[in-house]
Design goal:
By secondary structure, the chain is of the alpha+beta class. It folds into two domains: 47 residues, no CATH class; 40 residues, no CATH class. The chain contains three helices and four strands. The strands form two sheets. A two-stranded antiparallel sheet has the order 1-2. A hairpin with a 2-residue loop joins strand 3 and strand 4. Helix 2 packs across helix 3. The longest helix is centred in the last third of the chain and has 16 residues.
Length: 104
Amino acid sequence: MSEDRPGPECRHWIGSERRHCRAVDGIRPYIQGLRCPLHTPNALAGKPEPPPGYGHPPGDLPLSPQSASALADNKAIASGKRRSTPAAYRAAQAAVDHRRDLNL
């Protein structure tokens, strides 16, 4: 912050003018530091800003390690390589056979 300006300011270095931007409107934190809308990483790269919100929709996110391990566990149970109850064994075999019928 500068002594004459209250609040956060953009800390982008403008090399041709040999000074910091120091804009105070629309400041947001980034890994590189505080930036105004003109000096965000996407603006400097010539890309559009991402829409506001929480990020990717749940369908676009990769599987969590828990769900990926559950899939591996079901395959191990269905193959008989992992001990389980008879009901879990039959359910896992049915799930694996169902996927085979769908050519997945």
